[in-house]
Amino acid sequence: MLMEERLILISNDDGISVKGIDTLVRIAQPYGKVVVVAPANAQSGKSHSVSLTRPVRFEKIYDSGNLEKYVLYGTPVDCVKSALTKILPRKPDLMLSGINHGSNTAISLIYSGTMGAAIEASFYGIPSIGLSIVTHDLDADFSVVEKTAPALIENVLEYGMPEMVSLNVNYPVCQLSDFNGFKICSQTKSYWYEDFEETVDKYGNQAYYQRGHLVNIEPDNKDCDESAIAENYASIVPVKVDFTDYKMIDKLKKWNL
Questions:
Q1: Lowest-pLDDT range, 44-53, 119-128, 211-220?
Q2: How many Cβ atoms are within 10 Å of 29's Cβ, its own excluded?
Q3: Chain-centroid distance, C-alpha 27
Q4: Is residue 254 classed as helix, strand or coil in its secondary structure?
Q5: How far apart are CA 198 and CA 202, in angstroms?
Q6: Which of 74, 100, 125, 195 could cross-link to 114 by cystine, CB 3.0-4.6 Å?
Q7: In Å, how far from its chain's centre is CA 72?
Q8: Contact in structure between 113 and 43 (CB atoms under 8 Å)
Q9: Alpha-carbon gap, residue 169 to 129, rounded angstroms
């Protein structure tokens, strides 16, 4: 396929005005026409949330021919659904989500709006990549991503992806000279331990801010994404949609049901 014929969809969960998505647009533009459909504001932690009880609204805010931008008042998955059904002239050849300001390694994957958008696109057979960097700094240095992500995109375009599989890619914070390249990984077995910070709202009611920290339950596993990030690799985890525990099916068949 000629570059001029390729169509690339970009979204995120941090909102349309952040540095990460602007960087991703620059990375993607050499590979085809780019259409950005991104939330109006931050949607972190929205996972696969969709707007069912209120209408979704979007508007075009930029059009230069080979780059269009739409702001959407909804979730990252709303962005993908709206792009595929109302905005794009056809199914895109590639979907990129991010670059997220903050890690989406380990169990954080299931909470991630960034990956929610990528996973949604994978349902339709669209090769999809979610990209994140492990800092919440809004002025994060994306130079390592800009230098190395093109190779990842080129491989996905060349080899494709299975249906309902997407890539969860997380970058460390380091200089290019300290970057060790990509590492194919498993998702770290982990959970978030919540610690709720007590406060009082403007009405005088007791309220809580949800805080927490990631608990890695396999700290000695060198082949998982948390270990890769710690060693200055960008982790690549192929993500499947099917949640079925096939081994458990045979056990359930032995139950007295």
A1: 211-220
A2: 15
A3: 16
A4: coil
A5: 13
A6: 100
A7: 17
A8: yes
A9: 7
Model pTM greater than 0.90? yes
Residue with tokens 């990030």: 229
* Cα(65)–Cα(178) distance, integer angstroms: 38
Are the C-beta atoms of residues 105 and 229 closer than 8 Å to each other? Answer: yes
Mean per-residue pLDDT over the chain, rounded: 94
Supply 181's token pair: 């390249």
**Residue 107 CB: number of other CB atoms within 10 A?**
18
The pLDDT assigned to 2 comes to 58
Q: Tally Cβ neighbours within 10 Å of residue 179.
A: 18
**Which residues on adjacent β-strands are paired with residue 199?**
207
Task: Give dist(CA 163, CA 81) in Å, integer.
Answer: 17
- Mind listing the pLDDT tens digit for each residue in 140-188? 999 999 999 999 999 999 999 998 999 999 999 999 999 999 999 999 9
First to last CA, the chain: 54
Nearest-CA neighbor of 83 among 44, 128, 141?
128
Higher pLDDT pick, 212 / 128: 128
Cβ of 87: how many Cβ atoms within 10 Å?
Answer: 16
Neighbouring C-beta atoms of residue 246, cutoff 10 Å: 7
pLDDT at 245 over 90: yes
Q: Report percent pLDDT > 70 for the chain.
A: 98
Beta strand segments in the chain, E:
7-11, 33-39, 57-63, 67-73, 94-101, 128-133, 165-171, 182-184, 190-200, 206-216, 234-240
pLDDT band at 4 (very low <50, low <70, confident <90, very high): low
- DSSP state letter for 84: I
- DSSP-derived secondary structure for 137-158: -TT---HHHHHHHHHHHHHHHH
